[in-house]
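Re: beginner question about structure tokens

> Can someone show what the tokenized structure looks like for a real chain? I only ever see the sequence side.

Sure, here's an example I had lying around. Input first:
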Amino acid sequence: MSTLPSPERRHAAADRFLCLRTNDWCARSGVLRIFAATSRLGDGVAWYALMAAMVLFDGFDGLRASAHMAATGAIALLLYKALKRWTRRPRPYAADVRIRAWIAPLDEFSFPSGHTLHAVSFTVVALAYYPQLAWLLLPFTAMVALSRVVLGLHYPSDVLAATAIGGILGGGTLWLGSHIPGLS
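And the corresponding structure tokens:
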């Protein structure tokens, strides 16, 4: 009989450890302000501003890109809400008293990170239309994802899963759009 912990326990311990380590960063007010602001922008503010800018600066082509992002966002919202109801994973701060929620969460459950899922899916779609925005969107999306762990609201595995789901969703809507007459 092995005395080693199961892979699931090792994974959960690594998740908790990374949460604890990064959560301490926010004890420095400058770090907290940066990640809190990034998280707030990731609530939708940055994405709505980007969609408006696309329309403003690129007319009908920008409207098409924005509509594609909005449709992808609607699907992402339905998907992440269903996954949260199904998995009901407690947030890190609710499962471990050593982890602090530095800002208020938008809902009760942790898996997957909705901020990350939306950020990745929006970035995939936006970059398909405007690849020149990669210098801005890729670091911002990474900061949104990191903010969720640093702020004590998600485990790293919530963010990694949301990254995969968002990538598949964004890529899937691009593929679908290229295979339906009149959408491409």
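Each token stands for a local structural state, so reading them left to right follows the chain. The helical segments are 7-23, 29-87, 92-95, 114-129, 134-150, 156-179.
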